[in-house]
Every structure is written in C-alpha cells, then in structure tokens.
Records
---
Amino acid sequence: MRRFGRRRFGQHGFGFGRRGACRRRFAFTLADTPAGQRVCLRGFSSSLPAERLSHLLAYGLAPGRWVQVIQHEPVTVVQVEHSELALENDLARQIEVTPADDSSQNA
Amino acid sequence: MHCHNAVVSETLTEGTIALIGHPNVGKSVLFQQLTGQRVMVSNYPGTTVEVARGAVRQIPGVALVDTPGVVTFPPFSEDEAVTARVLLNEPLRAILQVGDAKNLRRTLLLTLQLAEMGLPLVVALNMMDEAERRGVTLDIAQISQQFDAPIILTTAIHGQGVDQLIAALQEAKPCRFWMEYPADIETALSDFQNQVETNLSRAANINLRALGLLWLSGDQVSAAWLRDHLPAEIYAKLESLRLSLEAPAQRIQQARLEKIDSLASRVLINVGQADQGWSARLSRWSTHPFWGWVILALVLYSLYWFVGVFGAGVLVGMLEEQLFGQVINPAVTRLVELTIPFRWLQEFLVGPYGLWTMGMTYAVALIFPIVTTFFLAFGILEDSGYLPRLAALSNRMFKALGMNGKAVLPMVLGLGCVTMAMLTTRVLESKRERLLATLLLALAVPCSAQLGVVMGLLASVSFSAVLIWAGVVTLVLLAVGWLAARLVPGERTMLLVELPPLRIPQVSNVMLKTLARLEWYAKEVVPLFLFGAALMFILDKTSLLGWLIHAGEPIVSGWLGLPPQASAAFVMGFLRRDFGATGLFVMEAQGLLTPVQIVTAMVTITLFIPCIASVMMIGKERGWRIALGMMATIIPLAILAGGLLNRLLLAIGWGA
Ligand SMILES: Nc1nc2c(ncn2[C@@H]2O[C@H](COP(=O)(O)OP(=O)(O)OP(=O)(O)O)[C@@H](O)[C@H]2O)c(=O)[nH]1
Ligand SMILES: [Mg+2]
C-alpha cells in the first residue's frame, strides 16, 4: 500500500478545503507534482507521524498555503515563502495537494 | 487576570533575557553584537546546540542567553528541548525573538506562541537585507499592535537595528496578547489553570495559560516540569484532562495557523519575488541529481588541493625545511649545546628524536599548516550554506545506515572535533538516530588533530597509502553503520531540512572561527604531542617499555604485525587517538615501520576510541551503559579491522 489513492487523507484535523482556497478534485500528492509547478496544500496522510506533521505545519506546509515544487531527485525540494525545504520523497508522498490552475491570484 | 511574572519595574536593569527563534536566523550573531562575546556562527540550522550566556554590554546588570533554534513548540529534538527548558526554568525578564523577515508567516507563528507566555517580548525581524533584496514589504506597526510587542527590523551581520533593539528591550512591558481557541480547549485551559494555580510548589516562569497550551499539546518538557512541581494526584488529574480532548495538539496548531494566515494577508504588503541570482542558481545545481555530485567532487577536490597540496606540501616544505631546518633548529641546537652541560639532556631536547627537533618541529612545522588550512576550508564550507545541501544529497546513503541526511552534519563536524560533534547529534530527531550517529562518530570519524598527524605520516609513504587508509575507514563506517541500523530497534525519521540561501562567507567570521580552533589546537593538542614525544623518548631510554611490549606482544606483533614497541603507542591511544598516532609518528621517524605497518597502524588507531573527552561526552549525552558498550565494541573492532588489513596488504604484496 504505497500509493496515495488508498490512503486516507484529511486526518489530524487538517481536512479538505479548509479555507476554500482550493477545492477537492482528486488525490494528488506533493511527490506527484511536476517540478516547477505551484500547488495548494490540502491535507496529510493519516500515517504521518505527529512530530513530522507539527514541523511541516510550522515550516509553512499547511493546508491552504501555496508552495512551489523545485525538484524531486535526490530529494523533493519545495519553496515556501522565501525559503527552501528539502524533504524525503516518502514524506512528500504523504502530503496531499491540489494542482494549481489559477495560481496567479494567490500568494 | 492572575499574573505570575516577576513584578516589572519601569525599565529593565537586571535579570536575564532569552534569545529565541527558528534555527539559522541570526540569534548567535545578535548575541555577539549584544554581549561582545564570541560564539559559533555558521550558515546551517543547528549551529548552537547548548545555551551560551553573556552580559549585555549596553544594559548593565542584564544577562543574555543564546539558545538552540526551535522550529515550533512543543519541542521534538533534543536541541529544541534545551530551549524549552530555558523558557520554563530560567527566571527570565524578557524574551527577544529573532525571526527571518522574509519568512513572515513562519516567524509570526512562533511570535504568537512566545507572546502568549506573557513575558515582555521584543521581536527582531532579522535578515532585512535579504528581505529587501527580494522586495518584501511589511506593515510593522500593525504586527506590533497585534502582538502587543515592539517589532525591530535588523540586519544583524551589519549591526543594523541593534541600538533600537536595546532601547526596545529596556522599555519592554509584559505582553498582553491573547487569542481564543475552540470551546472545549478553552474549558480545559481554565480547568488546568484552576488545578495548577494553587498547587504549584514554585511559580511558573511563563503564563499558566501558555503552560497549559504546551501541556495540552503533549510537550514532554513541561510535563517533566509539572511532575516536579505538582502533587502526584493533581498531575494525574491533568493527564486525564488532556486525554479527554480529541487531538488537542493539532487543533491548537490549526487555530494558530488560521490566525496567522488572516494576519499575514493584512500585514504582508508585498510578498516579494523569489531570488533569481547566482545564489539560487548555484543552489539548484548543488542539489541536482547529476550536477550535485559533480559539485561535491569539485568541493572535495578543492579541499584536497588546499589542505593536501598547498597546506601539507607547499607550506610544510617552507616551514619544515627552510624555516625550522635551516634557521630555527640549528640556532636552538647551538643554544642548548652551549648552555646545558648534560649530554643526555641535550639529546632529550635537540637530539635526532629530541623534544624540540622532532616534537616541536612536527607539531608546528608539519601538523600546524595542515590543520590551519583545514580549519580555513572548513569555516568557508560552514558559512557557505553547503552542508544542508550535502544532507539532501546524501540522504539515500544515510537511509541505508538507518538515519536521514541530517546525520551528515555531525559526521562532517566530527572532522573538526568529534567531541563537539557528539553534541550536535542533538539535532537528530530520534534517540536511535542519535545513538547510531554517535557510534559512527566514535568509531570512524577522525578529528582534525588526528587527521593532521595521520596525513602527515601517510603523506610520507605515498598517495596510495592515503587512499587505502581512507577507503578502509569508510568501508568500516558503512559496514558497521549498516549492521547497527539493523540491530538497533526503532524507526528512522524521514528527512525534513531547511536549505538556507547559499551565502558568501564573511571573511571576518571565517578568520575568527579559524583562530578559535587554532587556539584549541595550540592549547590542547600541541602539549599532548610534545608529551607523547617525551614519553616515547623516556620509554625508549629506560626499558620501561619491556613489560608493555611483553603484554601487548600477542596482539600488536602477532595479530597486527607491528613492531613490539608499538604497544606503547596503543596504550597512549587509549587516552587519545592522535596521541597514539604521535607515538607511531616517533617510531616512523626512527625508521621502525614499513609502509604496510604504517597503514595498518593508522587504520587501527583511527578506528580507536577518539579521546577521553569524547567518552565522557558519550556518557553524559547517551548514558554510561552505552558509553561502556561502545568502548567494548569499538576497541576489538579496530584491532580486528587492522589485523585483517595487515594480512590483506601482505598477501597482495602492497608497498613491497
Ligand atoms: N544576509 C544576512 N545574513 C545573516 C544575518 N544575520 C545572520 N546571518 C547569517 O545567517 C547565518 C546564521 O546565523 P547564526 O547567528 O549562526 O544563526 P542562529 O540563529 O544562531 O542559528 P542556530 O544556532 O543554528 O539556531 C550565518 O551564516 C550568518 O552570517 C543578516 O541579517 N543578514
Ligand atoms: Mg546559534
């Protein structure tokens, strides 16, 4: 059970479309986002350890926020505000996102 | 409202201020600016792992504590816990938060948590130079009003804003910031306050409400504090109170995030543009799946060139042959021969293996240039911001060793000083990872002092000797790491690390760090080196060596294939690896060792326990049982690996 589809998202009280910033379409994770794309974060896999979750949120990887994916190899790198975070691919796979089609209006 | 803070006078004239903030935002730079005291500053998260104290120059009577960076409360790693303990246990008069101005949301999330604590709070929004270059504009007045705390814009490395900061600290009043949480959490908070208020054996440093929020968020540090200061039955009540709530930690954090989101949308006038300059481009390449390795190879080659070719070749040649060989040593020899009548004392000081002619010459002319160039290169590497990129690049390898790429940090720092690097294992997230990293540090990472001696010795043999030594030590590191990861129970943590911008190192900071490290080398390593040389001389002259040789013979000669006198060096190696290497150095100078024996001896001594200080550190940080267990593993392992290598080298006829 590695892929996102069968995992349950929206646990930890960080549910779907928290602020209406991005509406749910289909499960899509940060690991599936092509490099260079901006995405809106939606929620987290229920298997994410609490301590990783808390750090992700503190770094600004929180539902409703926008991030830009920079690369996936050897690790996933995303830009959040004006800083870059490197995260392991397996961790990126536990972060659900909505691909941006209207990224211009949000910051 | 009940106020537990110390009575606050009009202006600040005494007490302690805590510097608190995210990792790598410039807390230690500000600490230096405010106290005039030197502390380590580097461009990677996790430089400071212990508190540092100093007196604020501009406010007489007031002390400042520098703390390790925290990502958020409650703390998860050990270095964060150090900071949380400062907040709870230290009688603080004020908090000085340092934040990164260009990452406002993240910074304010921490501001909110600190503001809730009720102590006077001043926020330094640092790195304004970088924020301005990216076009970030903020509504400072509104932030300040929202949190009831003065906000000062600073560029710490240029000292900008420091005066305003001091003025704000002197005037700071207890913070009255308050925000509302979901109803059930609010109820639990007032229950908490009622229970705790009357039963505490010591007044809390921070607001009871903030303490309650930490407690409900599952914080281990405040749990320990409450257990110490409350009757057991009250503590039990608090536990059931927390258990009655559903996911309190997440919901508290969510409420805060929402608050910050709505605030940020009002105070962020311009979010700015991502950096597009050389720093950003180089950053991409340095973590690129292909070019990243090319850059790593370039970095390693530059290191080899600067330390190996320039330091160990050019500088050593100049110092050893010209300065010492032709000028200083002949002069010293003449002086000794003229002033000291005893033949044996003359020989002890300036004979072929004398204290000055061999000991001091090697320590100053040979090893000193090697460590100096190494410290310089090391400082540049630390300040460039490359090390966190190395964590990203090496994550796969450390995954196989049961850790994540963050473990590269203590490993690389170990090349400077293993004992200090063991403290840095605090930045790793789990106990298991800290244990694994400590084991590998103790086993296979040579510190600068030892590197100097080993390099000086191996370079006299051949470059292939250096390669064999490095290869075997790396192999042992990987094999033991791999095995230990499978034997030590527990989960590994997935990598999550911030990559700070690549920055051009400040010359002054690199110089000061190099000087501080050279001072350590001159004070701690050189005397030991001389002592080692003297000891070898005395052992040699007095045949005290006899029983040592006899005792160590089976292992040293039988298994490792070394001359029996090497026993003495290994006994010295118990005190310190580089001390043992010094003994071998002396033997080599006396022509007692063949190339195979040198490589075998260097591998064995490198894999030994680093030094007494590091054993004390393992005991202190990981516990004495673990320290003893590690010694019992490492010493036989070092001897096993050395013996095997000796046999292998002889079998293939290397160096013959
Ligand atoms: N451009 C710029 N760089 C800064 C500024 N302040 C600090 N730095 C750099 O940021 C890096 C981190 O500084 P430190 O003082 O070590 O940060 P810290 O908060 O103590 O970090 P930890 O101890 O790891 O938590 C260093 O490379 C500094 O030179 C600033 O105002 N502008
Ligand atoms: Mg620091």
Note: The pocket of magnesium ion (ligand 2) is lined by residues B 27-28, 47-48 (CB under 6 Å).
---
Amino acid sequence: MNEADIRERARAFRAGHDPADRLAFLRARFDAGLAWVHFPTGHGGLGARRELQRVVDKELGDVPQLAPGKMAIGLGMAAPTILAFGTEEQKKRFLRPLWTGEEIWCQLFSEPGAGSDLATLATRAVRDGDEWVVDGQKVWTSGAHHSRWAILVARTDPGVPKHRGLSYFVCDMRAPGVEVRPLRQITGEAEFNEVFLTGVRLPDDLRLGEVGDGWRVAQTTLMNERVAIGGGDVRRGGGMIGMVADTWRERPEARTHDLHQRLLRLWVESEVTRLAGARLRAQLSAGQPGPEGSGMKLAFARLNQELTGLDLEMRRDEGLGYDDWTFRRSEAVDFVGRDPGYRYLRAKGNSIEGGTSEILRNIIAERVLGLPSEPRVDKDVPWKDLPR
Amino acid sequence: MTDLLYTQVEEELRAAVRDVLADRCPPAAVLGRIETASPYDLDLWRTLARDVGVAGLLVPESLGGAGASAREAAVVLEELGRAVAPVPFLGSAVLATSALLAAADASAEAASWVRRLAAGEVTAALAVPFSASPYRETGDTVTAGGDGALSGRVAAVAGASVADVLVVPAAGALYVVEAAHAGVEAAPSLDLTRQLATVTLWEAPAVRVAADLAGVRLALTAGAGLLAAEQLGVSDWCLDTTIAYVKERHQFARPVGSFQAIKHRLADLWFDVARARAAARAAADALATAKDVTEDAALPVAVAASWCSDVALHAAEEALQLHAGIGMTWEHPLHLYLKRAKSVQIALGTPGDHRAALAELADLPSPA
Ligand SMILES: Cc1cc2nc3c(=O)[nH]c(=O)nc-3n(C[C@H](O)[C@H](O)[C@H](O)COP(=O)(O)OP(=O)(O)OC[C@H]3O[C@@H](n4cnc5c(N)ncnc54)[C@H](O)[C@@H]3O)c2cc1C
C-alpha cells in the first residue's frame, strides 16, 4: 500500500465517520487500519511502511487524538511485544483497547533486588494446571494505579542460569492478590508505585512467548522502550530546547555570555540529535528497532538534564520557586504543563528509567561496537545458587 | 524533506573513490610522501579528477561538469578524509570552483576556467587563508592597481602550491591570476597532508571575473558545510581503527576493550559520530537543494560545521589516548589524522564562529 492509497483511505474514512463520539471514532479508526499503519491488517494497521503513518496523522489532524501520556507504556512497549510474540487471540483481545486508550498498561519488570540486572529478578510464577501462581514484589512501576493490564517478567525455573529461567506474562491488574502502593518521588507526587503480587492466579493464555523464553521477549520490550523514550519526532528548535530558547528570548535582562555559550552548544547538540533520530527513523523502514536507539535515549537524557538545569539558571529568582509539592497521584509525566522546577527534577529520571545511561553505554559498546563483555561470574550459574 | 541517507548512486561513487584510495593511498604511502618535495599526490589527483570524475561534480553539464551536487561531493570528501588523502579536492573542486561558478554566468573568462577545472585539465586554489570564514570579509590583503594588476600577500592558502590558477578576492572584487605570475611559497604546515602556502602578488596580471565577493561567501559557506563531510570521514577512521585496536590489544590478560572505562568512552564517541553523520548529510542536502546557498543553507551548514569539527578532533584525540604509546609514534598513521582534525577545526570558521552565527540564524540573541 503506497502513500496515495493511504491518503485516499484516510480521507474516505474521515468523510464517513463522525468524530463527535470520540470512542466510537477511535475504535472505527483502528478497525479501518489507520491506527498504526505498519501493524498488520486486522490489528489496526495495513502492513504498510512505518513512516507512512505521517500521512494518516496529517489527514486526521482535526479529529479526536489519543492522550498518549498514560498510554506510553502500552503504545511504546506492550503493543510491539504483543505484536511480535502474541497469539492471534492475544492480539485480538489486547491491541484495540490498548490503542484507543480504553485499557492502560504498566510495566512490572524492576524489583528491589533487580534493577539494571533485570535478569536476576526473583518474582516467581509456578504452574498450577492451566494457571500460573505469581508471588513477588515489583517496584518503580509507573502508572500501576490506573492500569488495567501489565507486562510482567517472572521466574519460572530457578534451577537454570538467570537469563534462561524467565517467562513473560500479561498480568491482570484487577486479579486478587495485586496490591499497588504509591511511592512519592523527588518531584512531590507519586507517578510510580510498588506492586505486591501475592498468590496472583494468571491463566496460561496470558503468557506471551514460550515458557523460559521471557528474556528474549523482554528484550523486544526494552529496545522499543528506548526508542519510545528517545525517539520522538520533533521539529527543528522544538521540544525541550524550544522551551529553554523561549526562556532566553523572553528575558533579555538575564542574558550573560556564559549562558549564551552554553545555550548555543546545547542548541547545536539538540539539532544534531534530532537529525540523528530522523535518520534512524528513515533507516528503520519496518521491523524491530536495533540497539542504535540506545544512543538516542542516552542523548535525550543528557540534553533534558542539561537544558532543564540551564532553564532554572536563566530564570534566577523565579528558578528558586516550585509549583506544587503536594503528595498526590500523578496522571503522567508532564514536561510541558508543569513549571521548570518540576522539569529539572523529573529529567533526573531520564537517565535511569528504561535502562540507566551506564547500562546503555554497555549495550552500545557490546552490541553495536562488538567490544568484549566484562568477565561475568553469573553467566553459567543456576539462578538459585547466585550470591545475593 | 531533507534526505539524510545515501542514495544508490552516492554509494557507487563512494565505492569507486574508496577503491582507488585503497589501492593508491594506503597509510604507508601517505606517510612516505609527506616529507618529500611533493606532499600532494598529483598522479592520484589526476586519476580521481579525470577518471573518476570528481573534479566536475559541482559543475553543471552545460559547463562540462557532471551536474551532480554537494551531496556527491560530500561523499567524496568523506572518503578523502577517511584516507587523509593528500589531494587538492577541497581547495580546487569545491572552494575555487564554487567561487568561479558563481561568476560564470556573467564572465566568459570564469566560465572557461570552470570548464577546464571540470575536465580535470587544471587545478585551482581560492586565495584566502584556510582559516577564512563565511562570516568575515576576505580579500583585504590584496590591492588592485589601475591596470587591474594585483599586489599583496595571502598566507596559509590550501592547495596553492599545486594550483595552476589562483582565484583571488581583492578590494571587493574577484580576480583570476595564473599561478605562473604569483610567488607561491610553501611553509611547514601542521597538517602534513594538506600543505598550505603563502601567495605573493607583485603587480600580477589579473582578469576581473566578478565585481563583488558574493561568490566567495558562497564558496566559503559550501566549503564549511562540505568540510563537515571530510571531518566525518576522519572521525570514522579514528573510531573504526580504535575499536579494532582495543579488541586486539591485551593487558591484564584481557582485551583492553573489555574495560568499562574504555567501552563507555567509545560508546559516547560512536553516538557523537552518528550525529556527525546526520549533521553532515543535512548540510550537504541543504547545499544541494538551496535556492540561495548563503541564505537557505546557512543554518544546517553552521550546525554541521560546529559539531563535526569538534567531533573529528575529539575522535582523533580519543584515538591517540586509547592507542597510547604506539599512537605517539611517527610510524603509526594516527598523527596524520590528529593533525588534519586540528587544522580543519580552525579552517573555514572555528566551531565557535559557527555557533556565534547561530545566534542570529536560530534567533538566540547575544547578550547586550
Ligand atoms: C521515573 C522512573 C520510572 C520507572 N518506571 C518503571 C516502570 O514503569 N517499570 C519498571 O519495571 N521499572 C521502572 N523504573 C525502574 C528502572 O528501570 C530502574 O530504576 C533501572 O533499571 C535501574 O535500576 P536500579 O534503580 O535498581 O539501579 P541499580 O541497577 O541498582 O544501579 C545503581 C547504579 O549502578 C549502575 N550500574 C548498575 N549495573 C552496572 C553495570 N553493569 N555497569 C555500570 N554501571 C552499572 C547504574 O547505572 C546506577 O548508576 C523506573 C525508574 C524511574 C527512575
């Protein structure tokens, strides 16, 4: 399906549907294959090239849009994983409400004892007939408080080395035994949570991929996560650098040569990073993102942190205040609506969430540059015998 | 929309240039000639200029060129940078040719030189210091007499020592002087693979080809944008060579490339180079498609020039540190890349000059 076909289809769809009923409109859009055109027909797409989504988004620019904040984990991580490893029934069941936003997803990966070393996680899933019984504790789970489903990695075989004994599930966040407790962040509110899983029963048809293949499935999620975090399509001078440039333009009295030099450097770095992202997207015609996306995520974190810090400095007295420390549940990360103090603090998480910058450098060094790994003491040892 | 990838045709051109360079310009050959009387390899230059046809890439077919664009010239420069090839492509086929091309509509003299340049019959140099930038006036060290003869001195001209003809900005206009009428004296250059020379004119007969310096500004803008591609090639060589070395070199019973301190530096460098590639492509594409180069391509050129300059130098410096002792030897080619990277950081506008230009181009006004 080429660009003209897709434009034609989008126009015809727009003409034939009333956007007044938001949900009905979004559902129909999914069914018409105009949700994500690179997905297969029947699952919200048309099997077209990924970049042709722009054509649809342009034609449907004036209709109800997704509210992507809360949906980021579903759209960016769960969906590509379900697409790659799900059965037909799983795709049918999950993808449409995920895309329309009727069902929100969260990510139950990290644990108190397993952060960067995710594969060492201890949450157990034990088979019981057609079900799995899950026990363990997850942590830093963003958005668990409004999620219907979660992607979950759990240990199904402690007797083999850590990477081999994992399986990947969809966890029903309404199942008995799932308990979500807020964790307050440095920004004041609680965007992430701890999640306790106690005797949670999940039917086997909520498993994604083979038993014992959970690490490979999780890799797909993580690669997509890094692209989702670092790979946004912004215009030149837009995004975070745009906000900081506006601070500069609006405050002639605060301008110093030192701030100017730093701003110009960051403007250049933002621009070359944007171009690298555009280049990456142009190369990534279809299929799964490779480890190159890790570079984007690294740069995005660095830039966000530098820029938000510079913004506060430019504001002087204003930079000494803060909008709201109230402990409350947050809806989503809000880099645009909140004040610069929040942006500065929240950006600190960018080099931690989705793989720390140190881990991303390891990944680039080993998988892109082919450098040898450090000596590993845990590689061939059964998980249950690892020192901890 | 900006095309940031390489086309099939561009890849074929790259392969052709790379083949010639692999055969005729290995590091040992470059090291062998830099201290001789002819550091530029004019045999290699003739092959590239005529047989591969790189001399006429920027010249339209109507003037006997290949009718290609800055995109193709950029690919050639990536390869020349990767090989630190001692040929006068940048000075002749980019800087001098662009300046003459801008004058060729109005001046038959300029058009005829462009034809000869495109055919690879002659080599030219733009008589400005290699440190000239698109943001400053040039030509203030040469004066034109009443009869049009030129007198003055221009230092640090790239490629002048092998030029048949000099394109000379003087007193606000552009002239052509045959090299036979000029004194050209090479002095030791920091970059051993791009010899610079001082040009001295003493009532030298000259032909005026343009009444202003718009063509020079255009040439310097195009030159700065395309130099970014050369810097990308230098970066590529430094990164690839260093990665290969740290995989081989063992200390503490491990490859040194397995130490995280080194892996992290190379991971960062890799993404700096990846961004240099995107920036250099964007600049080349803008130069190729701009209606008015000095207007429309100025911003992408300033971005690429500032970023790629710093990255190439950083890549060469990292390469030296990670090769350590062997990298400090004359015998290893690494120093050629360091010297090239440092020279081109200063050439055609420093990174700071290009960032300063962005204050206006990106609407980030300077402090009062
Ligand atoms: C805002 C935010 C939201 C998050 N949301 C989620 C979520 O929704 N779901 C989820 O599952 N997780 C989530 N996370 C968790 C995140 O993935 C982990 O915090 C992260 O993987 C790091 O783990 P850790 O915090 O245990 O740090 P550790 O792994 O303990 O790391 C401590 C330090 O050691 C360094 N380090 C560790 N190993 C190495 C190594 N091999 N080489 C070099 N340095 C190393 C790290 O880089 C870090 O600096 C979130 C985190 C944040 C900050």
Note: Chain A touches chain B at residues 237, 245, 248-249, 252, 255-257, 259-261, 263-265, 267-269, 271-273, 275-276, 278-279, 282-283, 292, 295, 298-299, 358, 360-362, 364-366, 368-375 (CB under 8 Å).
---
Amino acid sequence: MVDPRTTIINERLKRISRIIAVSSGKGGVGKSLVATALALTLSRSGCKVGLFDLDFTSPSTHLILGVKDAQPKEDKGIIPPVVNSLTYMSLIYYSHDQAAPLRGIDTSNALIELLAVTQWGELDFLIIDMPPGIGDAVLDLIRLVKRIEFLIVTTPSLLAFETVRKQVALLQSLKVPIIGIVENMKMTNAANVQDETAKLGLKFLAEIPYDAKVEEAIGDETKLLGTVLAKKIKQLVASNAL
Amino acid sequence: MHEWALAEAVIAAAQQIAEEEKLKEVREVTIKVGELQGVEKDILQFALSQLKPANFKNANFHITRAKTTLKCRACGNTWLFNEKKLGKDTVEAIHFVPEVAHTYIKCPKCGSPDFEITEGRGIWLESIKGVR
Ligand SMILES: Nc1ncnc2c1ncn2[C@@H]1O[C@H](COP(=O)(O)OP(=O)(O)O)[C@@H](O)[C@H]1O
Ligand SMILES: [Mg+2]
Ligand SMILES: [Zn+2]
C-alpha cells in the first residue's frame, strides 16, 4: 500500500522560485505577522507571491489580511483565490473558520493533501506561515519539499531564543537552508540575540520594535503596511538579504 | 475536478514503482478510495485513462471503495462514516481535505471530535502489476 500523494508534491511546486517557511520554536513571537508582511511587501515590490497558512489548528493570516469570503476554484486540482494580490491558501476554506482539532497524524495528512492538490501556478515566492515548534509541519516540509528554506522569528526573550536554538540545531544537522533570524517585539537595545545569531553562524536579518499600531492594523492591509514592523520588513526586502 | 490532481499523483507514484521494479510495461493498477473523501470513481477512472503514459498503454485501473471506520479516542466507540447525515457543503469540504471531518463530526456516543480515522480516509495505491 502506497500513499500516491507525496510523489506529486515537488511537481506541484516546481514553478515556484523560492519557498520560505516563517518559523519559530515558540508561539506568539510574530510569525504570522512577519509572514504576512513579508508576503505583502514582496508582492508590492513586483513579485508574484503565494501565502500558505500551515498553522492548521490556530490559523491567523486570514484575520491579518481581512479575508472575507474568498474560496478556491476547482480545476484539475485546487486553485487558491488571489487575496490582496497574494495567492492565498488556508484550511479555513474547508473548516469554515471553525475549530479544527487535529492530532499530529491529521495535520500531516491535511498538509500532504493540500500540497498534492493545490495548483499554485508560477510564483516568485511562496511564504508559509508555520505553527510553533519543531513538530509535524516542520518535519513534513523538510521531508517533502525539496527546496524549503527557513526564516526564523524570535523575541528578545531567552525563553523564545532557546527554542530557536533547538530549531536551528535541527535544521543545521539536516542541512536545511536557514535564511536568518528576525528579532521581533524588541523593547530595549540589548544585543544578545544579535550576538547569539552570529555565534550560530546565521544572518541577523532585522530587529523589529514592539509597535502598538500592529494590533490596530489587523485586518487592514494599508494600515499593516504603515506599521514599523512592515517598514522593517521592507528594508529587509530592499537589502537583498533574503 | 480535483480528482484530476489525485489521478496525476497515482500515475506518478505507479510510474515510480514501475521503475523501481524494472517493469517495462504496466498492466494493472489497483487503487482504493475511502468513502470519507468521496472521490468520484468515474471521474478518477476517466482522468487516469487520459493521463496514461506510453508504458501504461495496456493498463487497467481497478478502483475499489472502502468504507470509512472512525474510532473515538475518548470512549473507544467505533462507527461507520455516513455522508447522508451531513450537509452538502460539509461533504464537499471533507472531499477536499478529509481531516476537516474533525470540525463537523462528533462521536455519536460521547460527542468528542477526537476520533481516529482507522480506515477509508482517502486514496491508496494497493498494487501494481506488469511485465519486465
Ligand atoms: N512588532 C510587534 N509589535 C507589537 N505587537 C506585535 C508585534 N509582532 C506581533 N505582535 C502581536 O503579537 C501577537 C502574536 O503575533 P503572531 O503573529 O500571531 O505570532 P505567532 O504567529 O508567532 O504566534 C499578536 O497579538 C500580534 O498582534
Ligand atoms: Mg501564527
Ligand atoms: Zn466517544
């Protein structure tokens, strides 16, 4: 007995130039906001961009983008709708934004299903908003998506950074490319994350201050792109450090 | 027609097995589809026939259906999935991603959504036969 779905995944992704998972060992560090801002910024800079919410049990990007009633089309697979100029995929189309209580095996199966049937078309970037930790979603992407790269988000807290350190160790041991680390919600100018990032041999991509305007910007693309968070992401994109 | 995407996956996987087993020609592919996903047999059959590569020219595709067994992790109850109890939109959502069953289906005995899909989830390649 063979699961035929995994064989077709890299074929489905072959017209995407870069596939970036926005990830962290911890939850609540700003992965979803950074992923969404990054996707929107790349798209505004003229790239074709997809955004895939892989945090199946706690999806957030649809709220950040203010997705209303978009639905995928069916044509030799699933064609995700374009939302705020992003080719946007989320389990919420099928859970109808209700609770989806999934065990590891279920998240894995749902992830394989969506990767096997989603027709992304041609994209410059596919940004993936990840659940926290180094569980099923991270392991499945490493296993199934040949060209996956990770962008890691942390906060200044030791509690966040130590989870990131473990994630980095895993990715480095498996030789999975790491673009670098973004430090989010900074409230002092302590440089410890920057120093530790250098010790890990990784690029320190950006520091984003705590910005009270972020909360008001949820659901409003224009407001979101006006936040300091988005401006820092814009600088990152412009710097070519990606 | 998202069956088409699944058919492509079946062909790709069967082709890979044929290569591994050094089959020159594939004659028979047996596929199992679970009730939960509700893949349309005719559409799948048609898509497979259209997608046949040259070494599958004489291949027959046998598609068998499997009932879906669900087992509650909270109370141990086992029951069969029955799509007639669900609305059209729900059946369609489950058709695309069977795991969203956990959003819409509860254990009939204790009401828990924490059940295991023990059999008959989606699409499986059961066997492939051919000549070397
Ligand atoms: N730079 C920031 N300034 C202020 N609040 C932020 C910032 N980044 C994220 N947040 C807030 O922190 C919370 C967690 O962000 P989220 O993107 O959902 O994190 P994650 O996806 O890592 O769980 C949200 O309430 C978000 O609005
Ligand atoms: Mg998140
Ligand atoms: Zn029960």
Note: Chain B has a mean pLDDT of 96.
---
Amino acid sequence: MKMEHVDGKNEGKVVLFALSTCGWCSKTKELLKELGIAFDFVYVDLLPTEEMDDAIGLIEKWNPAGSFPTLIVDDRKAVIGFREEEIRGAFSK
Amino acid sequence: MNAGDISQDDVERKYQVLDREAGEGGYHLGPDNEFTKKLVRGLLINEGRYGYPACPCRFSRGIKAEDLDIICPCDYRDPDLDQYGACYCALYVSDAILSNKQSLSPVPERRPPRCERNSRKTIHTTQTGSLSYPVWRCRVCGYLCARDEAPLVCPVCKAKKDRFERFM
Ligand code: SF4
C-alpha cells in the first residue's frame, strides 16, 4: 500500500489513515504538520479497490469501528478521530 | 463528475441548497464556512463517484445497499445532534453550538462496526389489520405518515423514499 510521506521530527512510525473527503482527517493532518512530526498518510478512499480491504483490516486491528481518521503512533497506540489534546499529548515526551 | 471537475461554484450552489433545506427543517449547517464547504465538496465527490451522497467522513465501497444508513443526512445525524450538538462530520450542528453555548467536541462513531451491520434492525411491526393505511417512518428524522407508499422525499428532512421503513 503506497503511503505519502511528510518530513519532520522522527517520533517513530506515525501512520495516518484518512479519507480525502473528511474534514476531521484534514484537521488531523494539519495538526501533525503544525507539530512538525514525520508521518506517513494514506487516503483509503483513493486506493485501488483490492488495497482498500488491507487498509480497513489494518485500521480495524486498532479501531474496530473502522472509522477515520485513525492515527497509529509507533505501533503502540491509536488515536481515533480528531482528538487534538490526545494527539498533542502523544508527542510531548 | 470527477473530484477535479467540481468547481467552487458547484460547491457554492450545493451549499445554498443544503443551507436552505436545513433551515426549513429546523436544522443548521456548521458555522465554520470553510470547513462546512469542504464537506459539501466531499458530498459532491461521493455523489459523482458512487451515485449517491455517502457521508464524506465514512468509508464507502460504493455499494448503495450497504450504505443506506450513511447517505447524507445519515440515520445517525439526529441522535448525534441531540447528544453531541453536531453530526459525526459536523456538517450539521445544534442551536447550542451555533450560539456558542456549547463547544464542538469530537463525535464518536455511532454506526455499528462492519461485522454487526449486516443484521440491520428492522422495526417489528404490530398487527396492522385495523389500520386503513400502512404507516411509514423516515429513518433520518422519524417523520411518520400513513399512506399507501412512503413519500418520494421526506417533507421534513428531505431524505429520499428509500430511507423510509414500514413502521406499522
Ligand atoms: S449528516 Fe451524517 S452523513 Fe451527513 S455529513 Fe453529517 S455525519 Fe455525514
């Protein structure tokens, strides 16, 4: 599955599953950029059909509702939805 | 219509229609114009690629039968407006949010997960022997009407006929 990379501070593997049409997904992406964190993101609605299921499967492991945005931080925690404080908190060590 | 073919004018026009319809039904679009119009663009994109305006903040495979509950306005809008002051996408907001009496917070996903969705609950109808007409219920806003068939468009929330279920 092809992800797009955004450069920034290395905070481990940060992956954002998003939809290209979703308002909270863009807000999450903007927040990560504002925090200056390196991350990969993918717009699941724009993937080829056969890859959509893989993406949804990955998301459901962390978030059974399969909802967007789902942000997976360093394979240790997931932030579901645009929860600004939680996202900021995940990177303020 | 491809995502790239949707002009700002198209978005404006759709926004005006949604805004008027919302007002007529006692609903409100979100106050952040830029954010709201992005969602309206998302609805137009989905209408173009799936043939129906699936919720812009939810994943769709473009199979209408699987998505009847998330065609905008979705089945979850009104309960989310009651509980959180906004629909899941925050395209629609409550009076309290609009007048700054309540602040917008993330709305958790109310739609059941994929594995539970197939068994969509249908309302058990009561004995209808004594009714002269069947009663139809709009799944979006709860509007009820007694007539041979559900109306083409819900007069309250403008949901289409396929969003109605037999109530009695
Ligand atoms: S009403 Fe439902 S479908 Fe429409 S934008 Fe809001 S959450 Fe999405």
Note: The pocket of iron/sulfur cluster is lined by residues B 39, 55, 57, 70, 72-74, 76-77, 87-89, 91-92 (CB under 6 Å).
